Amino acid sequence: MEGKMDIDRNNIEDAAKQLKNVDGKIDEGLYSRQLYVLGHEAMQRMSSSNVLIVGMRGLGVEIAKNIALAGVKSLSLFDTRPIVISDLASQFFLHPADVGKPRAETTAPRVAELNPYTPIKVHQGQSLTSDLSQLDQYQCVVLTDTPLKDQLVVADYCHKKNIYLIITDTFGLFGNIFTDFGTNFTCGDPTGENPLNGIVADIDSGGLVSALDETRHGLEDGDFVTFSEVEGLEKLNDPKVPRKITVKGPYTFSIGDVSDLGQYKRGGLYQQVKMPKIIDFQPLSEQLKNPELMMSDFAKFDRPQQLHIGFQALHKFAEQHNGELPRPHSDSDALELLKIAQELAGSGEDKVELDEKVIRELSYQARGDLCPIQAFFGGLAAQEALKSVSGKFHPIKQWLYFDSLESLPTSVKRSEELCKPSGSRYDGQIAVFGREFQQKLEDSKIFLVGAGAIGCEMLKNYAMTGLATGKGQITVTDMDQIERSNLNRQFLFRPNDVGQLKSDCASKAVQAMNPDLNGKITSLKDRVGADTEHVFNEDFWEGMDIVVNALDNVDARTYVDRRCVFFRKPLLDSGTLGTKANSQVVLPNLTESYSSSQDPPEQSFPMCTLKSFPNRIEHTIAWAKDLFHTYFVGPAEVCNMYLTQPNYIDSALKQAGSEKQTLETLKDFLVSDKPESFDDCIQWGRTQFEKQYHNAIAQLLYNFPKDSTTSTGQPFWSGPKRAPDPLRFDAENPTHFGFVESAANLHAFNYKISNKGITHEHFHSVLDNMIVPDFKPDPGVKIQADEKEPDPNANSASAGEDELQDLISSLPSPKSVGDFRLEPVEFEKDDDTNYHIDFITAASNLRAENYKIALADRHKTKFIAGKIIPAIATTTALVTGLVVLELYKIIDGKTDIEQYKNGFVNIALPFFGFSEPIASPKGKYAGPDGDVTIDKLWDRFEVENVTLKEFLADFEKKGLNVMMISSGVSLLYASFYPPAKLKDRLPLKLSELVEKISGKPIPDHQRNVIFEITAEDSTEEDVEVPYVMVKLGKK
Q: Regarding predicted confidence, which is higher, 882 or 598?
């Protein structure tokens, strides 16, 4: 039997207060997309924190870049060592002319360009450990490229002083990260997911809560919820008392015995409460002996323990060799490292079994410096630093090791000679892969689709790896221009680039990073789609080795994917959503494609709910966005069509059902409501307020009074139906006034009426002098009460001929208005001066006031109405690192699907999942010489432009009896056609047949035509066969 309700407060209130000691304002224009991931509180805590990064080679600068973009109070860099040419393998802010200069001093001003709100300083002193008290000025210290003995000294000091510590290192294709955030670290939001909520259907005396309409609650054991609006158990309605739950099923959960609180009557909402989590960390000295290891790849279950030993062995090797790591591909050094590792493996409490191949590779690659590995760990380490100072998301506890040994090439040789340094900027990469593979990279031809956040990070990786710097070429296309909100994560852009093309600016930036790319990047401004196939034609696609998607919408990614399947080109796709990221490898004849799987459809709401019965803020925002379109977009477009298209009335009104509505819209916007001055627009806005928030609600309550019951005797206003109240306009209420102000300005925009000189005082003057007529409900109005019932107004839009003629005669003739046109509003969420989000926020919140729904601020409304994809630089950097690790494999020519990895990451949890790509689906049919296996995705029949008769005969030889042939929407052939119909078609060439049946010529740029066929095999069974490509040849 369950005990009384569990109200768990153990230090949680104190912890919550610790997270709220914040002040200061945030630039929402710059940080817009990041704010939707982190929230205002976490960002304000970040903006009061000072962070130190030690080591300014590739890994250090990657972390610095990500933290600078995210925004902290100050960021200090420390590295007094001189720059060497090999630093340029991944340190993207250095140039060959910098060799010999101090790393931190040279790098600091270039990091400072990223974000004017993050001051960049150089930590003073020759040695980090000579005066440890200097570390007291920082809340967080990040160590890279630091000897283990110094790590231990700094770690011990930081643990005692409660300074958050992150240590991260990379060696070739290997890397690790360690965190120590002290004892009693408070994690305010371990997951970053939006709190769940729902409507209560019932609560029994044992505390079993049932969700309404069998809606999955999504909660987990140990979650906390609060209640509101519960009738009968009013004592539950205390927002300050969160209650711990136990999940009983997908639609039920328990809060423990509530029999002493009364008896449930009806109603109620539950709301999940995010409870802080207290975490204890151990210092580095203890964790070296007894490590708490996280898994990064479950296919390498025993790898972390081995690498934990291997990394310590590398540090010991360096101590014994004057700070020098093992030489690239040196067998003698590898043997020495293996001995050190074996000693360490046998000395601890738990003996670790070592894989000699792994330790040998660690030695071979110890001096390796790979940009994609730095991107992965730089993204992770920066996010861990931000977690420490913000309390947002769950930290890594306490070690994470990762490797990508599958990226090692097998098509070329590696040896000490081929991997030794030669004074090249690519020495760090050559140390891992060898010179022959470097040549392959330099000769590759890449098509990058998109130059936004992922595109910028991709190009940085390409520049550092030397991709396409030989006989290769990079082509990048992006139709978008740079906006201010891009600067927070698209790090190749600067404020003076705003308004310019992304592809141009990104290309110039990476050519400056690596002059070897000069003349090797082609930037385009064309969208990749069906309308640009004359630009991205057969020659273009055939000239590419690999295609990389850096796109943020599914339609564009799907189109590129289908082109890659058609031209049989490898595709690397990736995407991010806040802290989540995924990467996918698409390989010709091996894997399924991006389009083979689909995301679930976007959530949609029943129209009946939006119109009359909202119960969530998402409902009112969707309604407000529809109102925006109904007021400022649709009518202006309809009016312009009436004014510009001859016989618009005759053609448009033949579309049955909407004749009366269309004519009434024209009359309203060209006659009745056509404003002559801005004052008219103010009055129009005030009238719309009355219509939507008073009259419509009063009519709804007239149809369904608050004491209404359903046919079964249940209260009508119960469950998801919330009884509304009409609003009385109050010009002093900011939301009321904001609605009229934004509506008036947008109405004026439609009619090109200037708002210059219009003050708030003028608004008030006009509003005070308005007489708003009283409203009387209309007994003839019908309102749909339930989505499952037929709409009582379905046929009410139809009107008699006389009524339609009266409406038509009331309209001005298009000639009589001369050049007058309306200006439709184009919704733009990121312009804070255009009143678009202001209108939707006010309209939504007023409706929420009607229905007593918790309001949403402008920031949240913009997120939902603008369908904004939350984004942060750390996730983007990390996922591009994973993509480039797969790029190495494709360039190597690997054909073993098990060597490739699709990645799934959520750095908030943190979670890492890797899986081999799913193989493409196979099929078979019975041919003349036995079964023929086909790849349902990648295979096709390729035929010359022969006659239809020859085409059918060729397929008969393959054992396939073609039943039907179609191209697009044209049916070219069917076996059931009468001989007379086939007589004219059989002698035609296939191209002639297409042109004849479709009635359209084949475009000049098109070199092939696609046929879909249905066929029977030799057993007379219908079989699924690939499509046919008819080759037309060059025109």
A: 882
How far is Cα 1014 from Cα 1025, in angstroms, rounded to an integer?
7
Q: Which two tokens stand for residue 736?
A: 């009321």
pLDDT band at 17 (very low <50, low <70, confident <90, very high): very low
**DSSP-assigned beta bridge partners for residue 199:** 269
Helix (H, G, I), strand (E, B) or coil at 474: strand
What are the structure tokens assigned to 644, written together? 């510009």
- How many Cα atoms sit within 13 Å of 107 on the Cβ side? 34
Q: Which amino acid is at 867?
A: K
Give, as one character, the DSSP assignment of residue 670: I
The span from the CA of 881 to the CA of 375, in Å, is 5
pLDDT-derived band at 788, boundaries 50, 70, 90: confident
Query: Of 456, 505, 608, 681, which residue is the catalytic one?
Result: 608
In Å, how far are 95, 455, 462, 880, 887 from 507, measured between CA atoms?
17, 10, 11, 17, 20
Would you say how long the chain is, in residues?
1035
Say whether pLDDT at 21 is over 60: no
What would the pLDDT profile of 658-709 be if each residue is shown by its tens digit?
Answer: 778 888 999 999 999 999 999 999 999 999 999 999 999 999 999 999 999 9
Q: How far apart are the C-alpha atoms of 264 and 184, rounded to whole Å? A: 40
Q: In angstroms, how far is CA 349 from the centroid of its own chain?
A: 45
Which residues lie across from 1023 on neighbouring strands? 1015
Phi, psi at 143, each rounded to 5°: -105, 130
Of the candidates 154, 671, 103, 191, the one whose C-alpha atom is nearest the C-alpha of residue 392 is 191
At how many degrees (to 10) do helices 617-632 and 634-644 cross? 20
Mark whether 608 is an active-site residue.
Answer: yes
Residue ranges with strand state E in 406-472: 445-449
Query: Region 492-505: what's the mean pLDDT?
Result: 95
What are the tokens at 603? 């959530």
Is 919:407 a contact under the CB 8 Å cutoff? no
- State how far the Cα of 35 lies from the Cα of 114, in Å rounded to an integer: 17
CA distance 449 to 556: 9
Instruction: Please report the DSSP string for 89-152 in residue order.
Output: GT-TT--GGGTTSBHHHHHHHHHHTT-TTS-EEE--SS-SSS-GGGGGG-SEEEEES--HHHHH
Give how far Cα 268 sits from Cα of 39, 210, 211, 246, Å.
Answer: 28, 11, 10, 19
Between helices 617-632 and 858-865, what is the axis angle to 10°? 70
Residue 334: half-sphere exposure toward Cβ, Cα within 13 Å? 17
Peptide bond connecting 584 to the previous residue in cis, omega within 30 degrees of 0: no
Q: Are 984 and 992 in contact (CB under 8 A)?
A: no
Whether residue 119 contacts residue 125, with contact meaning beta carbons closer than 8 Å, is answered with no
Closest by CA to 689, choosing from 724, 723, 738, is: 738
Q: How far apart are CA 448 and CA 876, in angstroms?
A: 16
Whole-structure pTM value: 0.90
